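Amino Acid Chain and Its Fold in Token Form
===========================================
Structure side: the spatial fold of the chain, written down as a series of whole-number tokens.
Position: the record begins directly beneath this header, with no further notes in between.
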Amino acid sequence: MPPLLEVRNLRKSYGSLEVLHGISVAIAPGEVVAVIGASGSGKSTFLRCLNLLERPTSGELIFDGKPVAYDDEGWGWRRDRQLRWLRSEVGMVFQSFNLWPHRTVIENIIEAPMAVKKVPRHEAVDQAEDLLRRIGLVDKRDAYPSRLSGGQQQRVAIIRSLAMKPKLMLFDEVTSALDPQLVGEVLSLMASLAADGMTMLAVTHEISFARSVSNRTIFFDGGVIAEEGPSQIVLNQPRQARTQQFLSRTLPAIGPAVTRAEPGLAHGLRA
């Protein structure tokens, strides 16, 4: 089966500072990949390059068999069209919730499907209510984000992305801004998505999630992939000294245990 996402020799520089030094990786459909590494190792920049929140300096991005244009030369308006297409197919959730504070929960969820994919309002509302019901927040449909806990806001942010029926979900340290007691409910939601077969790439410090839910773990160090492989091997028997050193510092604060959930949250939603 061809990869859903293929990255070839991706580089990113800010002036004379090169942050990513030729990243190459392929993500298969249905694969859950954890990206770990110290702060400043380039993992979040890598994730932001994948949906062009950051424009790569060089390299190739191929999504769903189609090359992604990020250089204006020779593309013009076609690049803008590709950008809209890419972001409609790739959902991204950040450590900050980024919910519109002046809109209710239901309004936050239905906006993108209606505006981008032209889903009729009644269909968008029905889908949003179904998603909220499945995560136990349908009673919050008319609440404003300020009335929700951090964990509730992050779960709403996740299903807001899911409402677009993406083929790939990107998570950028989505639990790092949460109180420890709220981390588990967000990780459980991500585990449920994994059980549904959602293709996921998650930058995370939650080693328990990476070990229990992801198929593969990639360790970033200094803007390169220092080690990658099956999560059980990379996280339990790392070969590289830098990986071993990183995990020895991280393991004392592993966080809540997470296991693969039963499918059902996103089943049938993705077109």
Remarks:
- The two ends are 19 Å apart (CA to CA).
